[in-house]
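Re: [ENG-882] Designed sequences occasionally contain unexpected residues at chain ends

Forwarding the minimal case from QA. Structure tokens:
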């Protein structure tokens, strides 16, 4: 979907070097609960990746989300990461936002990753029960408050003692994933890893 010139401008994050201890995991307060964390690329203002993220979220480019997910999956396979993951959980959208957008961009990314790694995508375990405000201009504290109580565990089938991969499109402060993980912690023996295609460099 992206030309070679555009791809050449994208910068892999340093999270690939230390999956268990890196700048993505540092965004979470309960770091010991996260098994591994990988962000595909750094996100800079006015960059190609910013245009990609915008197209995925607001311009109906579900195909682009799935394509970049496949690219992510191929690199994960090459680096032999997340080999013991049992299932992938995309961060869910609220039903109103899902109706407006027509698809969940995190699920499209997860589908792309799953198609390469041959891992099942689970869209039933988590549900977004609170239609939160857009967090673009919020501080970390405001984001945490915004997503508090936003998610519910609706189906824990197959989660006990499993290793799941939580997928989001962008992790800025970690507030959304933190809210998801706080719910998933109810499941006995569950291990959680986190993957995102974009990690903003100014946070």
């Amino acid at each position: 979907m992206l030309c070679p010139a555009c791809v050449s401008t994208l910068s892999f994050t340093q999270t690939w070097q230390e999956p268990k201890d890196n700048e993505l995991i540092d965004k979470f307060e309960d770091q010991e609960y996260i098994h591994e964390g990988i962000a595909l690329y750094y996100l800079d203002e006015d960059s190609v990746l910013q245009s990609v993220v915008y197209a995925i979220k607001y311009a109906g480019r579900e195909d682009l989300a799935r394509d970049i997910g496949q690219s992510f999956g191929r690199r994960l396979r090459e680096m032999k990461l997340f080999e013991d993951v049992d299932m992938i959980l995309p961060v869910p959208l609220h039903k109103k936002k899902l109706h407006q957008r027509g698809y969940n961009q995190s699920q499209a990314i997860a589908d792309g990753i799953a198609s390469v790694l041959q891992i099942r995508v689970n869209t039933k375990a988590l549900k977004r029960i609170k239609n939160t405000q857009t967090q673009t201009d919020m501080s970390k504290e405001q984001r945490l408050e915004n997503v508090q109580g936003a998610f519910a565990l609706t189906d824990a089938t197959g989660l006990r003692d499993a290793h799941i991969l939580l997928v989001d499109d962008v992790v800025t402060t970690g507030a959304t994933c933190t809210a998801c993980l706080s719910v998933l912690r109810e499941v006995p023996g569950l291990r959680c890893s986190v993957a995102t295609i974009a990690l903003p460099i100014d946070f």
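QA comment: On inspection the terminal residues look reasonable. Residues 45 and 183 are 32 Å apart (CA to CA). Proposing we downgrade this to a documentation issue.
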